[in-house]
Design a protein that fits this description.
75% strand, mainly beta, nine-stranded antiparallel beta sheet, 180 residues
Length: 180
């Protein structure tokens, strides 16, 4: 059995100046400041030679501040906590079946001229995936059921076929569904 444990961290910061074509005067100075951060702890555990289980726990945080002539017009802070558990089952050399669950909790706080109608969101999803690998083609099929406080809990899916070309290239054709 093989256990791997890791930690990741990401941070991005930007400041933007822009023109507003709807401004009443040309002396208006519009700026935006954004900060994004994310951390994650993850494990990969090869439980058997045919079963790999992965657990990810993390949180993302972003802050957005829009200013006019140096005065804050609106500010939003979003925090998202995530938990994901994925299990990969190898069925021989050519088949891989994946099953998992995703959980998330989002909280938005803000001030200013803009407002968020939905400030809190909880969601969880169950998913499964089947992959086939052969010398003449690769095949992928997924199915996912989401449950959310903000949507009608849709089912999404996709199907994909890949055919190898010369020189290590591959052409893929796929179709999928999504929701807003």
């Amino acid at each position: 059995s093989d256990l791997q444990i890791g930690l990741s961290y990401f941070r991005s910061q930007s400041d933007s100046d822009f023109d507003n074509v709807w401004a009443t005067t040309t002396s208006q100075d519009y700026t935006e400041d954004t900060l994004q951060q994310q951390w994650q702890v993850f494990t990969h555990y090869q439980a058997t030679n045919r079963w790999l289980t992965q657990l990810r726990i993390g949180e993302s945080w972003d802050k957005y501040n829009q200013q006019l002539n140096g005065a804050s017009q609106s500010e939003f802070v979003t925090r998202e906590k995530q938990l994901s558990w994925q299990n990969d089952f190898s069925l021989g050399q050519q088949h891989l079946v994946t099953a998992g669950i995703d959980l998330e909790r989002v909280v938005v706080s803000g001030t200013g001229t803009q407002s968020y109608q939905d400030r809190n969101k909880s969601a969880h999803a169950f998913y499964t995936q089947w992959q086939v690998f052969t010398d003449s083609f690769d095949f992928l099929s997924t199915l996912r059921k989401d449950y959310s406080t903000l949507s009608e809990s849709p089912i999404t899916s996709n199907i994909e076929l890949g055919v190898p070309l010369t020189g290590g290239y591959q052409i893929n054709l796929g179709f999928g569904t999504a929701f807003k």
